[in-house]
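Before we proceed, please read the two lines closing this message. Let me know whether the structure tokens fit the sequence:

…
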Amino acid sequence: MIINKFFAAFSQLISKTSQVAKQSLTKQNLIQSEPMRLSKYLAQTSVCSRREAEKMIESGMILVDGKKVDSNIPVTSENKIQVFTKNGERMPVKQSTKVWIFYKPIGMICSHNDPFKRPSFYDFAKLRLKTDQHIISVGRLDFNSEGLIVVTNDGELARCMELPETKLQRIYRVRVYGTFTEEKLKKIRNGLTIAGVNYGPYWVNVENRQSRNTWLIMRLESGKNREIRKVMQKFDLRVNRLIRQSYGPYKLMGLKPGDFYEAQIEPEIKRKLYLQARKKLQNVQEQIQLEQTKLNIKALDEQSKNEKQIEKQENDQVQKKNLIVNKFKKVQQKTA
């Protein structure tokens, strides 16, 4: 009877644990345990859309349990799924994705809403593109800066290009006013800390020296708000002109302020998208494994508690039985 109770309690525990697991996976937007099509799996992990997933499968970019698949097979969270190619250049992108290269003039703000009602670069770009669709700039240039801005209608592509880990190089021509010495150049190259924020180190070269102005070439792999201006100000240098010349594989190509051209999605950018997709999938699968480990530990803890509770009930029953036996013996002794 005790064994039957134990198995009944254990079955309830397993059932309860299974329900908790499903709720947890749903809550965290993870993959359900039942089989689903590979394209749906990739879409639910936010790696890509179903259509893009189907293209990736056709291109041989998906491995399931170490084997390349060429069809939209059913998978579960138990399968090891990888996004894989040698160079990532076959990474599919949405057919509607567009990329434009603009030369932003001075006197425009990269914001959709400005409390000071200054001219918006987005309004200007939409007017030039003759479109009402939502567009996004990859990074920003402040009101007094000019030069290259990558504009796209694809938020995922924009986020990918902005991430510091993608290490897309930005090249700037910077004119500074003030006394520019070799000592200052060395310190700028080494980087510095301003108000607890680390800046640099930087690749910096002097392009041209004038009486009070110095033209510099700077290369950055990430961009904080007004970063170059803050760094120069620390050395008593005022930036009076700042021109972004390139962003990753995209260059101004002789554009004049206000001009633009439509660009292709370069292989380097496709590779960055591919690496981001692979990292997303890896993170999701690691999260699933961690969640399953937590649930297993919780189930073992519950099982241990139930076993202790059952053992206590058995001990209590034995003690009650012993008390009854002892009382019965005492009654027998008295009557004898």
About this structure: The chain has eight helices and 16 strands.
